[in-house]
Amino acid sequence: MEKRPPSVPRLAWQGEEEQEKNNPGAAAAGQPEEVQKVLLLQAGWDLPGEGQPRDVSAEPRVERTSEEPHDVVVTLLHRAPSCDREAVTIWRQMLSSSRTAEKTVQELLRVLENWPWHHTSTADGDSIDVSALAATRALQEILQMPECPEGLRVRFPHFFLALLFQMLFTTEELPEEVDAFWQRVQQEGRLPSTPSRLAMQTLKELLCYVGLEDEMREFERKHGWEALLNPETQLSAMGLLARELCGAWRGSRYEIARCMVELLSREQPRLELPAMAFLAELLACPDMWRYAERVLQLAPRYLRSESSAMRCLVLRALSALCHEPAMAKRMWILQRRLMELLGDADGEVVEMTLSLLRKMLWDINQPLFKGITLELAERLQPLFDHNNSRVQLLSLQLFQRLMEGVNKKGRKKLKELVYQSLIQLFCILHDENQEVAEASQDTLLRAVHLLQKRKLSQLLERRQTWPAGECLLSESSSSRASQYVQQALWCLQSRKPSVQEAAVRFMGLAGQRLKGQQEELQAMHEALQSMPGDISASLANLSAQTQLILTAVDGTASSRPSLLHRLHGAWRRRTSLWVSD
Fold first, then answer.
1. pLDDT per residue as tens digits for the range 322-355
2. What would the pLDDT profile of 141-159 be if each residue is shown by its tens digit?
3. DSSP state of 267
4. What sign has the CA pseudo-torsion 567, 568, 570, 575?
5. Of 20, 18, 14, 23, which Cα lies nearest the Cα of 42?
6. 17: number of Cβ within 10 Å
7. Could you tell me which residues come within 8 angstroms of residue 364 by beta carbon, excluding any fewer than 6 positions away?
8. Cα–Cα distance between 415 and 410 in angstroms, integer?
9. Domain ranges of the chain
10. CATH superfamily to which 211-365 belongs
11. CB under 8 Å to 54, separation ≥6 — which residues?
12. CATH 1.25.10 fits 367-514, yes or no
């Protein structure tokens, strides 16, 4: 035994010794440097006599392969990773017996799932490293055999995921040892140009094998395969693949979803984004609520991810589960994190958070809790003037829902928050986006109804906006009017000229109501004077007129030099516009 070649398991070597005893002429054929003969011995075959065609008269000794299928598989993958003709013959014979086929499939999957190397040892203790790429190549040949083992169909979800993730791994820069292995294997056989394309071809054949050929071709028609090979489009391609196969999977989709959830539970950073992209689409399939609790357990951690793409994917997954009223209630355990996301720098994250909250609120057929109402209302107000119109719409609609659903205990404090949003809603009535303007109108009507201001409500219903503004100021105390000025000053910082113009116009109305209140008048003066120089001519003129009104009310000349300077600047800008025309 001390002469046994390294990395050749005892089973093969003992087979060779037996050959030497029974057939001395065949001893030369069993030399360890002849890889193909070693593989035949390892697989439990009797080698053909001298002069006979290779592999033709060989008879399998299945009882040997059934004893050590693990050794047979790893040795075959280690010695013939390019899966040449002789190796294919051995795979075929190993899979032809029910006693060895099942264990062979298990071992093949085990190697395939361990990227990039499967570290193992043989029965006699020899350590062997087997490449997952070699297992992919072997699987490709096995799928082309007339009779594939049933174990492949039974374990389809696991083989599918192993190949899918191998595609994603191999689109990245390969480790040096993997690249060297691939270059050597390519020289031994005719293989695709890259490991990722080998995984892609094998995955296609697997889908055809389980009867998903039409879905595979539809995914190909939509350029999904090429998108999977591009790191910049992989996430969208994963979602597309899930949607294409969702309806056809039936039983398999549940097992795949379970595998994805388990994978995300193990915190494997390289797999988390594509796994969540796939799972988020998969959860939209019928009866996937069985995984809702597991997803809820994972959500807090992934909602805190530094990746905005991950945060969006988690929100999409939660949204897919939110169609059940019971699930909507369960999701309120995430309320703290969802509220925090309303301040996210990524507009898409904010939009998706609002959309999820909207579903959760619409599905609750009971008064809202006081704490939820007040905190959410506070976080919604800054979003009314967001640069994303979809965020504006959703935040306004949610604010309406809060005013409708708040219980009696929370109504008093909510009224104060509503007062703090009135002028902002007045200004957004003039938003360039008609949908946003209409949503602001509806929200403002709901607000004045909650505040029980009938006359104001009537004016708004008749679309008499500025008479409504005058009415609001006339019915307000001086302290409340001062609060309205602060809101107008905030609206003056809007990036939308129409909202800015509405804020300036309201200042003109408020100035007449605030006679003698030097602090508020001076604050409006300073805000108007500090407006940027690149504003439109119409806004500059309106600002100048408003400053004149404020100066007249104030009765001082402290701001006149600055006012004249602003008028002169506005005139020069207007003249330059005419000249350019």
1. 877 788 888 888 988 999 999 999 999 999 999 9
2. 999 998 888 889 999 999 9
3. -
4. positive
5. 14
6. 15
7. 325, 328, 329, 405
8. 9
9. 1-153, 211-365, 367-514, 535-581
10. Leucine-rich Repeat Variant (1.25.10.10)
11. 36, 48, 86
12. yes
